[in-house]
Amino acid sequence: MDSHKTITKPNTVMAPPTYAAAFRCIGTDCEDTCCGDWDIPIDKNIYNKYQQFPREKLGSLVSQFVLISVPDQPDPLHARIYRGSSGFCPFFGADSLCNIHKEYGPQFLSATCSIYPRSFSYVAGTLEGSLSLSCPEAARNILLVPRFMQIEGDLFSGNFRTDNVLHLASSRKDSCHKPHNFFLTIRTLLIDMARDRSRPLWHRLLLIGSLCESLDNITTAEDKEAFSVVLRKYRQIVGYQISQPELVNLPSLPRLKLEVVFRLTDALVRDNSGKRFRDIFWAFVEGIASPDRSTPQNDMERFLQAEEKYHRPFFEKFPFILENYLVNYMFQNLFPYGREGSPRFIPRSLFGEYIQMATQFAWVNTLLIGVAGHYKEGFAEEHVVQTIQSFTRAVEHYPDVLQSIDESMRSLELNNLRGMAIMLKV
Question: Can you tell which superkingdom this protein's organism belongs to (predicted)?
Fold first, then answer.
């Protein structure tokens, strides 16, 4: 260990995020409205309120488009607002505003419509609020603001509902132990890892995976000291900037990474991923595709050239953008424990949560390389925002897509650190 390196003292546990409350919808100026592409779940209480609407004041639309879900659904999924033939919410007005909100006020909005793109969770008895990057304005607020975590807002302002709140996932028989009293310390360390610019971002992500894997190996609630030992070890690795040759020397196979990304994206594009994401995908393809009659090797050379000439210089200039993506993901998904409380909750181990996060990051970052190759010197913040926002919108809101990521990584035997190195390294 070099004598000139000193340990960075553990940061105090950071304040709970409240930046979601500072978000303001830009309404008609939004380039990708949230009132299209999705059927909106309606809880039982709101459904009953909608039944009281007079026919001439949206009641006729309620009877046509607000329908009870299949029997025995939990209250939050009691009914749904189904889209009209236009693909938009039937209450979406010609002025691009919500007619329910205009006619009856925000208290009559469903939880989804009231909260989105905010996401609320209870952690250690405290309400936290993060943002979904599937909203263009939220993506700008997070990705393009270097210190977005310092933005504060009032989560109890009454401007949105706070009754649809998720919470930390608990230990399960088929998963590892998840002691809630360690969560905030773990998250603080993980965020410090994500922002540790003494090593490349792919290395930071592999180090995060190594930590999650080590914590996964602690299986009993009584072994509290083992958690402390592991956390001290990784805090020293960050503080001393200790290299990990076992991670650095893991293989880089960009051709396999591209094959996986094409496989994942092809399945997504075939589904209802939205025109905005399909546009990004074709920009990615054009950015790495070689002229006719060229060999696959030429495609790989163009991909590597796009990373070296356009993608890498951009993110060296704006390193906080991808860091912010990861930090917001950690807040939103209560990484690495996961958040439960939704009927669509998918239980995962700590390392399983890591595979999900790292695969999504590798997927969207690979798309960014092709998009950079498409725009070349013109590659800019707006292209990054559009790529990440449209990708998030196509992936985040669909449990089947998230489940397919787990299944694909497992079937390809990439659900391990070696596999994540293949996906993350260039």
Answer: Bacteria
Q: What average pLDDT is seen over the chain?
A: 91
Structure-model confidence comparison of residues 39 and 253, the more confident one = 253
Q: What tens digit of pLDDT does each residue of 369-425 get?
A: 999 999 999 999 999 999 999 999 999 888 889 999 999 999 999 999 999 999 999
HSE-up (13 A, CA, CB side) for residue 417: 18
Q: Considering its fold, how many domains does the chain have in total?
A: 3
Is residue 10 domain-resident? no
Residues 267 and 234 in one domain: no
Residue 257 belongs to a domain: yes
Boundary of a domain, candidates 190, 214, 246: 246
Same domain, 87 and 153: yes
Element (H, E) at 118: strand 118-123
**Cβ contacts of residue 22 below 8 Å, gap of 6+?**
151, 152, 153
Q: Are strands 126-131 and 118-123 parallel, antiparallel or unpaired?
A: antiparallel
Q: Which of 106, 136, 168 is the last residue of a domain?
A: 168
- The answer to whether the beta carbons of residues 417 and 206 sit under 8 Å apart is yes
* 347, 293: one domain: yes
What domain range includes position 96?
A: 19-168
pLDDT at 10 over 60: no
Q: In sequence order, which residues have a C-beta less than 8 Å from that of residue 423 and are 6 or more positions away?
A: 257, 260, 358, 359, 362, 363, 414
% of residues, the chain, pLDDT over 70: 94
Token pair 């930071």 in the structure block, residue: 204
Measured distance CA(363)–CA(274) in Å, rounded: 17
339 and 281 in a single domain? The answer is: yes
- What 3-state class would DSSP assign to 130? strand
Burial class (CB in 10 A: 0-12, 13-18, 19+), 327: buried
Among candidates 362, 366, 397, which has minimal Cα distance to 132?
397
| Residue 4 within any structural domain of the chain | no
Write the pLDDT tens digit of every residue in 362-376.
999 999 999 999 999
Q: Looking at the structure, do residues 271 and 294 belong to the same domain, yes or no?
A: yes
CB count within 10 Å of CB 411 equals 9
Estimate the crossing angle of helix 201-216 against helix 320-332, to 10 degrees: 20
DSSP 11: P
